[in-house]
Write a structure and sequence with these properties.
Layout: H1 2-26, E1 43-45, E2 48-52, E3 62-64, E4 73-75, E5 84-86, E6 103-106, E7 115-118, E8 133-136, E9 146-149, E10 164-167, E11 177-180, E12 192-195, E13 205-208, E14 222-225, E15 235-238, E16 250-253, E17 263-266, E18 281-284, E19 294-297, E20 309-312, E21 322-325, E22 340-343, E23 353-356, E24 372-375, E25 385-388, E26 404-407, E27 416-419, E28 435-438, E29 447-450
Antiparallel strand pairs: 1-2, 2-3, 4-5, 6-7, 8-9, 10-11, 12-13, 14-15, 16-17, 18-19, 20-21, 22-23, 24-25, 26-27, 28-29
């Protein structure tokens, strides 16, 4: 009898051991150390079993697989990486599910009831994601519906001008435009700020910012003054003065140290009326006047003369028009034979010929009118006629009114005024045979006269 009881106990132990061995096989696990794989990629170490969950979000999770008692199933709950032991309801108690689209019902080994999963080998359309993007399948979908950023796929190179860097808009994965790179410091004087020109990224000049100017204090009745081109005040100026009226052509004058005008002066912004002067003369403004009221000599052009002569300005003229002898010039000696002396012509400054000595000849007196002097012909010892000589005649400074001009008459030593001639008003002359065109100095237009005269 004792032997029979022992056999019964041994049979029960063998049955229990076989049942536990079959349960471990269901989950891909045996108690033997030689088994190293399961649906949870389990490994056995001593008294515990460690597995890595296959779910995408559970790659780094290591799970301990419990050994379930009879009547319990090893189930992984939703939103969990590791399985637990639980009692599953009978299959008839599972809710009826209806799958839409490309999904079919499927019961996983770690689930109590079937769920809708994507049909295997379901063809999905290609989205054609650009470089830097990858396809994204939303939870519960079977096919990708959009492109999302993929850090493992580099973007295409995006080139920018100097001073700019590629810019990726918020929500994009790759750059689509350029933006300015960080600029180096740009320093400006006090009262100025850096200015960036349109199209540039960094400042290249300075501009005024009056809010950056330091305070500038002025005495009473004065206010700070900023000079043109400056940004901040550098001096003081007077406050607004009451009106100060001046005659036409003049402007108010403020004396140094005063704030408001106390007299009138010429206004350079109002041009004077034209004042016409003869040749070689320029308008003259008298002291105290604002506009010219007469004429005076202007600068003359260079006038060249022989070595023994100097430029000569006739009385009434402003500039030289001829040459006269230079009194400081030493003439070279002229050796004449006995009984002859050097002859100095009125046109020469130095003697060039020899003539008989006329010192012993007594000449009869000859009288000439003012402006003329006795004239001795070359080779003669005594004067026999009078010749025009203006060297001793003083002519007053001549000023001609508007519409008149100065001219030099042939029979006078001093210039005179005549009406300004307009050659365009003269007619073309066609003189008869035996006549010639003659220009009378006192007239504006030429006339015909006989050649015999």
């Amino acid at each position: 009898m004792k032997r029979l009881n022992s056999l019964i106990l041994l049979s029960i132990c063998i049955l229990l051991l076989s049942s536990n061995r079959n349960l471990m096989k269901v989950f891909g696990e045996e108690s033997s150390p030689s088994n190293s794989t399961s649906i949870y990629n389990s490994t056995t170490t001593d008294n515990s079993t460690i597995v890595a969950a296959q779910d995408l979000n559970c790659d780094s999770v290591r799970c301990i697989i419990p050994v379930c008692r009879p009547g319990y199933d090893l189930i992984r709950p939703p939103n969990s990486c590791c399985p637990i032991c639980t009692i599953c309801p009978p299959p008839s108690d599972c809710p009826y599910i209806r799958c839409d689209g490309d999904k079919i019902p499927f019961k996983a080994d770690d689930k109590c009831c079937p769920e809708c999963i994507c049909r295997p080998n379901t063809p999905c359309p290609l989205l054609g994601c650009a470089p830097g993007y990858k396809e994204y399948t939303a939870p519960g979908d079977c096919c990708p519906s959009k492109c999302v950023c993929d850090p493992n796929r580099p973007c295409l190179p995006y080139y920018c001008p100097d001073g700019q860097v590629p810019y990726t808009k918020p929500g994009d994965c790759c750059p689509s435009s350029c933006q300015c790179a960080p600029c180096p410091p740009y320093f400006c004087p006090i009262g100025q700020v850096p200015i960036t020109r349109p199209g540039d990224c960094c400042p290249s000049s300075c501009g005024c910012d009056k809010s950056r100017c330091p305070p500038y204090y002025c005495p009473n009745d004065q206010v700070p003054y900023t000079r043109p081109g400056d940004c901040c005040p550098s001096s003081c100026q007077c406050k607004q003065c009451p009106p100060y009226f001046c005659p036409i052509g003049q402007q108010p004058i403020t004396r140094p140290g005063d704030c408001c005008p106390s007299s009138c002066g010429c206004d350079s912004t109002r041009p004077c009326p034209p004042y016409v002067c003869p040749n070689d003369q320029v308008p003259y403004t008298k002291p105290g006047d604002c506009c010219p009221s007469s004429c005076q000599c202007g600068p003359c052009r260079p006038y060249f003369c022989p070595i023994d002569q100097i430029p000569y300005t006739k009385p009434g003229d402003c500039c030289p028009s001829s040459c006269k002898c230079n009194p400081s010039y030493v003439c070279p000696p002229l050796n004449c034979p006995d009984g002859f002396v050097p002859l100095l012509n009125e046109t020469d400054c130095c003697a060039k010929t020899c003539v008989p000595n006329c010192k012993l000849v007594q000449c009869p007196p000859i009288y000439c009118q003012p402006g003329y002097s006795p004239y001795t012909e070359i080779g003669e010892c005594c004067p026999r006629q009078c010749k025009k000589d203006c060297s001793n005649i003083f002519c007053p400074l001549l000023f001609c009114a508007n519409g008149f001009e100065s001219y030099q008459p042939d029979d006078s030593c001093c210039k005179q005024c005549r009406q300004t001639c307009n050659s365009s008003s003269c007619i073309d002359l066609h003189c008869l045979p035996g006549d010639e065109i003659y220009q009378d100095p006192a007239l504006c237009c030429p006339s015909c006269r006989s050649i015999q005269n």
